[in-house]
Amino acid sequence: MSTGLLTPPIRQTQVFVPELVYFEPDALNYPKGQRILEWAKQQGLPIQMTTSHNRITNLPGESDLEKYKIAKRTLVVGIRKTLKFDTSKPSAEYAIPIATGCMAHCHYCYLQTTLGAKPYIRVYVNTDDILKAAKQYIEERAPEITRFEAACTSDPVGLEHISGSLKELIEFMAREPLGRLRFVTKFHHVEPLLGLKHNKHTRFRFSVNADYVIKNFEPATSSFYERITAAGKVAQAGYPLGFIIAPIIWHEGWENGYQELLEKLKEALPEEATSDLTFELIQHRFTKTAKTVIQQRYPKTKLELDETKRKYKWGRWGQGKYVYPDDQANALREFITEQIFEKFPQSKIDYFT
Ligand code: SF4
């Protein structure tokens, strides 16, 4: 029964069209490079060549902030040279690289720091090389299953209409008895993926959050309504479905916010979505470097970045993170876990971190 919690947006979120497109010359030797070139021409976009994405230093814009905003709407089409995959714990064994960068403006996004001064969007055209490397990783771990995460450095669903790379990955994994794909998105443009043969080897996850978080910290992403409607279509297409609630943010009224989130999910999801449903829970964290970058790029942000209110957690690679103190983290974990099991008793919580 509808409780009226879900409201369609007044305006639909449009697919991403960049303002500027760069090609690395080798990219044009690949059919995908040629296809993207044709698409960019049809869209009437300014097209430039660059010997390497590292040489893109002359983006338009007066201030650093303007340059940053334009970089987020700049597409670089190139080759993925490093075919050594990073690990991707806890969600998968490896990160599979198909794109880097994102057009959305989530204030908390860790790409702010990992991409540093190069926030433009890169898509890679040599998918065959990437899949060959994936095949080797699968063989090395046989007879264990190997999971690949495709959204570690980007939101690939938001770029699918340009690159078509997820389609290739999904169809490849469908043929691999020991290969699994997973990715997460905040976009609803799932149509090109619905009719694919996936063999249930791809877990499609949507990033969702309390209203307060989506409204204040996730500009230029699809609305909650759009995401959840897309999740229903994905479930109907037979994909295993999941939700990542991240970042979980302590804010005034957080219990109501997260309770309402789970109520809305329950109201919107078709029955078939709930039999094999997973949740991943990630509390908000930040590093000192991230704090500086976020405050420069989103100076009016309401994101709470006060180290004195947090617990310091040492990191594996030197720089530690600020997470919530144990009492707050436990309260968040317990409350949200209860809500999940109350609404979706058959679902599985993969982790809380
Ligand atoms: Fe970052 Fe994801 Fe937001 Fe893109 S949608 S800015 S990848 S958090």
Automatic annotation (TrEMBL):
<keyword id="KW-0456">Lyase</keyword>
<dbReference type="GO" id="GO:0016829">
    <property type="term" value="F:lyase activity"/>
</dbReference>
<dbReference type="InterPro" id="IPR007197">
    <property type="entry name" value="rSAM"/>
</dbReference>
<dbReference type="InterPro" id="IPR034560">
    <property type="entry name" value="SPL_Bacilli"/>
</dbReference>
<dbReference type="InterPro" id="IPR058240">
    <property type="entry name" value="rSAM_sf"/>
</dbReference>
<dbReference type="InterPro" id="IPR049539">
    <property type="entry name" value="SPL"/>
</dbReference>
<dbReference type="InterPro" id="IPR023897">
    <property type="entry name" value="SPL_firmicutes"/>
</dbReference>
<dbReference type="Pfam" id="PF20903">
    <property type="entry name" value="SPL"/>
</dbReference>
<protein>
    <submittedName>
        <fullName>Spore photoproduct lyase</fullName>
        <ecNumber>4.1.99.14</ecNumber>
    </submittedName>
</protein>
